[in-house]
Amino acid sequence: MKTFLSLAFRNIFRSRRRTLMMLLVVAGGVSALLLAGGYFSYMFWGFRETTIRNGVGHLQIFNARAFDRDETRVLENGLAGYESVRSIARSTPHVTGVAPRIEFFGMVSNGQKSGTYMGTAVVPAEERKMHFVPQVLAGRWFSPEGGENEVIVGAGLARSMNVKPGGGLTLLAVTADGALNGIDVDVVGVITTHFKELDDRLLQMTLPAAQRLLQTDRVTKLVVGLDNTDRTQAVRAVLASRLAGSQPRVILKDWQELSPMYRQIVLMFGGILTFMAIIIFFMVVMSSSNTMMMAMFERTREVGTMLALGTPRAWVLALFVLEGALTGVLGAAAGLLAGNGIAALLNRAQIQLPPPPGNSTGFPLRIFHVPEYMILASILVVLTLAAASIPPAWRASRLKVVEALAHI
Amino acid sequence: MLRIAFPIILMAAAASAAGPDPNALLREFDSLRNGWDSYVVRVSIRNYEEGKQNEEHLYEVYQKGAEKTYVEFLSPREKGESLLMLGDDMWIYLPDTSRPIRITPLERLTGNTSNGDVARTHYAIDYDGVFVRTEAVDGVNCHLLDLTARRKGSTYRSIHLWLRASDARPVKADFFVASGKQLKSATYDRYQEVNGQTLLRRMTIYDNVRKGSRSVIEYLQFTQRSLPDRMFHQGRSERF
After folding, report:
1. Where are the domains of chain A?
2. DSSP secondary structure of A257-278
3. What is the DSSP-derived secondary structure letter of residue A52?
4. Least CB-CB distance to B96: which of A109, A113, A183?
5. B110 to chain A, closest Cα gap in Å
6. Residues from chain B contacting residue A111 (CB–CB below 8 Å)
7. B16: pLDDT confidence band, cut at 50, 70 and 90?
């Protein structure tokens, strides 16, 4: 066996230039895949964290009824007595904050004109703890000294209601038992979510103000933030068991269930990456097999000699396939080195990329080192190169000895 | 000879009286609901869903001419709310707030009653009437009028109104929205003489979409009274 290996190895380096070409092609393909895959991984990670930071949080706790049927009255399926659930969640390890929220619709008036708003009532201190503060365009966000009647409006809503920080609005809503109610509020800030449809309707207010407007002490949900996204499933299991006996029954949802867009984007870009990988592999295999076929052609006399000396045909086949595989191994090794090296250099360079859709600031280019991609690329390259060397190897092993010896 | 002439003469007579004047009819109709130029009426509205009655809602409606209406909400749960109509505009005022909310006459006041059903009752001004035909409704000869909204502030886009041929009392009506869909219908149930004026005392509005849902409007007490202009002021200042 060892002779075989050393023979294959020495054969490879007999034509150094040709081997170098093949190594370059293979290494190039592997590096390209690692760089593309690492970049996509970074994009997925960034999108995941953005989704979570934009207010979805890591986990959300609802009244179990909320998913059984629709409400006919606001907060009919809301969470009552949420303080006990909140303290249980707060005391769970790795939880950084638990924020109660109320979400509802209503009408808003500036005295001359009425519009509709999508109200989100928050506890500002808790939101701030989990970094859920949106981008402020004018005025300020809620402050600890601020009053209960402060509101923050989306940019589109501010424009249609013709209101600026310092102005006032009247909010109208239907209470939990179906009556009409209204409160006066003071606008202290204008924000943007970078989604026009949200900016046109969004209105954030304090939890006490919303509970006064809706005449209820319930909330729509509790948003739980963790210190590390990778711990989401583990903490979810712990929290679920701790809340198992609570009345009313609660249900937990994680950020992936609550953000179908994330999954769709990952699927879409995953598909693109797979498509790119196939193309790269195709090109690597095509050029390598071309080189290998040329090499095989030139070694016809050598094969004839081996056969004349009594080498079994099977050994000839095995030798060539082994050569192909070995080239693959060397190429993969080179590719891993080059790919990770280039990635490290690029990460160091801190290249600024333009802002993605929905953001106003750019971000630095980073390429992740993903072990799964490295292993996958290496194995695939070795296998495909070995496979690509089979047809010419097969033909070589089937040569007629006399014709092979007489070959140029 | 006379046998042929008679029908011809009859037809000619009928043709010349080609339908009564719709505007005159509408003015008659308006006077059955608005007995005086300036008055106050207490209105009770009871809503029935599937036969079961929800609580009764009480309102005090102050009407001055055809362009100014002020409605005070008297029910315990709605105390402090009020509605103001000036020309084509309508607002609702909520207690403890400093700004009015602009609303439309078609929006619901309560049950199947729209704001306009209580606050905009001068059809001759809001609608153009066209006489369609005379037909019998429950054995009573009625003129059918097709009303089309004439102003921006009119409650409905069009109304089919059946008025009694003899005295222009409304018998029933169908109400349509902009798409042509029929939203509701109404029957005018009871009349009574008040201070020499015949006035509508009760009408019922039926929901065309949710059968089994209806609102009964009763006009409990009419008082002719001269009302000051400052009552119909859009600002939040004192009205009384």
Report:
1. 2-52+262-405, 99-221
2. HH-HHHHHHHHHHHHHHHHHHH
3. I
4. A183
5. 11
6. 99-100
7. very low
Distance CA(B158)–CA(A326), nearest Å, equals 86
Q: Please state, in angstroms and as integers, the Cα–Cα distance from residue A23 to each residue in A18, A29, A378, A386, B134, following that order.
A: 9, 10, 13, 14, 98
Residue B125 half-sphere exposure, CB side, CA atoms within 13 Å?
13
Is there a contact between B115 and B101 (Cβ–Cβ < 8 Å)? no
Distance from CA of B237 to the nearest CA of A (A): 14
Q: Which of A109, A177, A215 is most worth mutating to test chain B (most B CB atoms within 10 A of its CB)?
A: A109
How close, in Å, is residue A117 to chain B by CA atoms?
A: 14
Asked if A84 and A246 count as a contact pair (C-beta separation under 8 A), the reply is yes
Of B94, B95, B98, which is closest to A172 when you measure between CB atoms?
B94
B103 CB near a chain A CB, below 8 Å?
A: yes
For A354, the token pair is 């333009």
Chain A residues with at least one Cβ partner in B under 8 Å: 107, 109-114, 168-170, 172, 179-184
B108 close to B123: Cβ distance less than 8 angstroms: no
Cα A141 to Cα A124, A185, A211, A310, A377: the distances in Å are: 9, 14, 20, 86, 48
Contact assessment for residue A335 and residue A377, using Cβ atoms and an 8 Å cutoff: yes
Cis upstream peptide for B20 (omega within 30°): no
Find the radius of gyration of the CA atoms of chain B: 20
Which phi-psi region, left, alpha or beta, contains residue A173 (left: φ > 0; alpha: ψ -120 to 50)? beta
Q: Which two tokens stand for residue A173?
A: 């809503």
C-alpha A305, offset from chain centre: 57
Q: How far is CA B22 from the centre of its chain?
A: 16
Q: What is the pLDDT of residues B156-200, one digit of tens each?
A: 999 999 999 888 899 999 999 988 899 999 999 999 988 888 999
Q: Which DSSP string corresponds to B95-159?
A: TT-SS-EEE-TTSEEETTEEHHHHH---HHHHEEEEEEEEEEETTEEEEEEEEEE-STT-S-SEE
Q: What is the 3-state secondary structure (H, E, C) of A90-122?
A: HCCCCEEEEEEEEEEEEEEECCCCEEEEEEEEE
Output phi, psi for A250, to 5 deg: -115, 160
Contacts of A116 in chain B (CB under 8 A): none
Q: How many CB atoms lie within 10 A of CB B147?
A: 24
Residue B36 DSSP SS3: coil
CATH number of the structural domain A99-221 = 2.40.40
CB B92 within 8 A of CB A170: no
pLDDT tens for residues A124-157?
999 988 888 888 999 999 988 878 999 999 999 9
Written as one letter, the residue type at A85 is V
Which residue carries 């080498």 as its tokens? A311
Q: Hey, are the CB atoms on A169 and B99 less than 8 Å from each other?
A: yes
Instruction: Output Rg (C-alpha) for chain A, integer angstroms.
Output: 32
Tell me yes or no: is domain B21-232 CATH 3.40.50.10610: no
Can you tell me the distance from the alpha carbon of B209 to that of B222, in angstroms, rounded to the nearest whole number?
A: 33
pLDDT in tens, B42-73: 999 999 988 778 878 999 999 999 999 999 99
Asked if B153 has any chain A CB less than 8 Å from its own CB, the reply is no
- The ipTM of this complex is 0.72
Among A192, A193, A183, CA closest to A139: A192
Q: Is B99 part of the contact surface with chain A (CB cutoff 8 Å)?
A: yes
